[in-house]
Amino acid sequence: MLMFSLEPANPFAQALTGALEVSLSPHEERVFPDGERKLRPLVDPRGADAYVVHSLHGGPTDSPHDKLCRLLMFIATLKDHGAARVTAVVPYLAYARKDQQTKPHDPVGLRYVAQLFDAVGVAQLIVLEAHNVAAFQNAFRCPTVHLSAHLLFGELAQEIARTELLAVASPDPGGVKRALLWREALEERLGRPVNFAMIDKRRSAGVLSGGQLVAGDVEGATVLLLDDLIASGETLQRSAAALRRAGAKDVIGCAAHGLFVDKAPELLADDGLSRLVVTDSVPPFRLPDDGPVRGKLHVVSAVPLFAEAVRASHGSWRQ
Questions:
Q1: If you ran DSSP here, which 8-state letter would residue 34 be given?
Q2: Are 261 and 236 in contact (CB under 8 A)?
Q3: What distance in Å separates the CA atoms of residue 40 and residue 29, rounded to the nearest whole number?
Q4: Hey, CA dihedral for 173, 178, 183, 184, is it positive or negative?
Q5: What is the CA radius of gyration of the chain?
Q6: How far apart are CA 175 and CA 167, in angstroms?
Q7: CA distance linking residue 166 with residue 233, whole number of Å
Q8: Interatomic CA distance for residues 4 and 6, integer angstroms
Q9: Exposure string (b/e) for 74-93, b if CB count within 10 Å is 16 or more?
Q10: Would you write out the chain's pLDDT as a tens digit for each of its 319 residues?
């Protein structure tokens, strides 16, 4: 197995190689004066089962499309030099939110990204919590491994359930399946019913509407409000307020990816959300270290899920 990271100092990549008990394979990256990049492995990949770790969130230095281009070109280089199989390990997959046409002449960004991965010969893609699992799986022709973030939040829920009535909620209709899967897993784990709710949120042209009506029972419950990502925080803030009006005792925001863009530090400081739980797929570099959101933020590592997926993948390939 060869394991590359296009950001070798990245804590996620270092933790993943530690969990797998392998070393990061070295590579060279040169930046030309006009901004072009050259990436090449410093080990011979011929015949190897290679994995390239790169999360495609924007910042703090490169944009999502810069990171995507670097990842694709490095994978193509590995294939050119004889790698038997190259797997992209992508904790956060950019452009996954645009998975359908909702207006005339709309793009379908997820499908275009999938075509780019196919074009460079990616054999497999491992991601954490895609925006829409069905759309993600249908967009790619290569095998995909989708890791559900709720598997990382189970201990938190079990701790709360010892003393509190528990409910799982989706902040919008599109996330209902994700929340229901977590609810079912929690009921099996706890051996008792868990309540469920959904909020009526809609977004068009970037404008959020709805978020006032709650369908389900949250009266007196601690609500685990589950989403795939937190961007500006407006969805979570509105949903938490609606759940509180519906009688929720407490609301904890849970998401795989914490982007925390725009006014997120201000919106998420709202008292409606007592805690925020995200994974380390995206480092929370946009949140001020001394801000109020940092005080209620808990980061859970997704490394164990990825390590298990890579082990299984490599083991089946060798057989």
A1: T
A2: no
A3: 7
A4: positive
A5: 20
A6: 15
A7: 23
A8: 7
A9: bbbbbbeeebebbbbbbbbb
A10: 999 999 999 999 999 999 999 999 999 999 999 999 999 999 999 999 999 999 999 989 899 999 999 999 999 999 999 999 999 999 999 999 988 888 899 999 999 999 999 999 999 999 999 999 999 999 999 999 999 999 999 999 999 988 889 999 999 998 999 999 999 999 999 999 999 999 986 665 555 555 578 999 999 999 999 999 999 999 999 999 999 999 999 999 999 999 999 999 999 999 999 999 999 999 999 999 999 999 999 999 999 999 999 999 998 887 5
Backbone angles phi, psi at 152, to 5 degrees: -90, -15
What is the sign of the dihedral through the CA atoms of 296, 258, 238 and 199? negative
Helices (H), the chain: 11-20, 64-80, 109-119, 133-139, 154-161, 176-190, 234-245, 264-267, 292-295, 303-318
DSSP string covering 215-281: EE--TTPEEEEEEEEESSSHHHHHHHHHHHHTT-SEEEEEEEEE---TTHHHHTTSTT-SEEEEETT
123 contacts: CB under 8 Å, gap ≥ 6: 85, 86, 87, 142, 143
Distance, in Å, from the CA atom of 231 to the CA atom of 29, rounded to the nearest integer, reads 30
Please report, as a single letter, which amino acid is at residue 278. Answer: V
CB 230 within 8 A of CB 284: no
* Domains observed in the chain: 2-147 (3.40.50.2020), 150-300 (3.40.50.2020)
pTM given for the model: 0.94
Q: Do 149 and 129 form a contact (C-beta atoms < 8 A)?
A: yes
Q: Which two tokens stand for residue 286?
A: 């946009």
Say if CB 262 and CB 238 are below 8 A apart: no
Would you call 318 exposed, middle or buried from its count of C-beta atoms within 10 A (0-12, 13-18, 19+)?
A: exposed
User: Do the Cβ atoms of 306 and 92 come closer than 8 Å?
Assistant: no
**Distance between CA 131 and CA 94 in Å, rounded?**
10
